[in-house]
Design a protein that fits this description.
single chain, Phosphoenolpyruvate Carboxykinase, domain 3, 5-stranded antiparallel β-sheet, two-stranded antiparallel sheet, 6 helices, 7 strands, 35% helix, Poly [ADP-ribose] polymerase
Amino acid sequence: DKSSCCQERCVPDPGQLLMAHVIIFKQQDLELRKLEDLEQRAAKKVQLEAENDSSQPPRLELEKRRRQARQQLKYAQVREPLIRAALRGLECSLSGATGTVLLPGTSAEAEAVVSLYLLGGGAAKTPRPPGVDLREALGGVVVQRIENQPLFQQYMSLGQDSMSPGGKGRYREEVVWHGTRLKQVDQDASLADKLQSIAEKGFDPHRCIKGAAAEGGIWVATNPMESFGIGCDGLVAFILCLAKTNFNEWVDSSCARVLQRERVLPLYSLVHA
């Protein structure tokens, strides 16, 4: 076996080397070459963008973008089955039923909600010692499934006419987060009261002060945002929703202000300190 006789040597002086043969390998697979070409172009583009960013070395910036891409993929893998299961549950729920269901902290459903929250950037500012996992640092989390069958029926009926041959696609549907917290102006109400009210009545477009405008609106974001702040009771609460939005309701690429209650369907609430 000749391969077993191969040895490595270090030659410090290039003058001691005599080039005898040059081996050129040509890839015949056209599709593979196309893929490699696309990858090289993408890598060059990322490298150029990273080099133009003087705040970080190019290699670190490239690795950061790769991590973000992997995280976005994981987010989608957790999100899709969770949303499908929640909608199936609403389809099977009793007519007119409203309220919340407290999920056991060890249940797969609760852990999926928490994972989605963390993968989306939630709790990014939570202090933690070196080597401690973010989920562990987050501590106790209360997760509830929201069941509002009447609102579910209203939500699902919206935009159905756009599926007809002559209809127009009216809405863009997104999985979004809405942050809520206890404020000083809430007086005797508790965060639990606010969450229960949202579960039973949906969101009030005229009460949301985040991103407020003259016409009101329910502020939502495609990822949980710490900018909602911590409530005066020291708690952070986020609600995972489905939303049907119009183009002009998007403030930027990740945040929107939805003007109708019926177009935001709350599915889960998550509370932690």
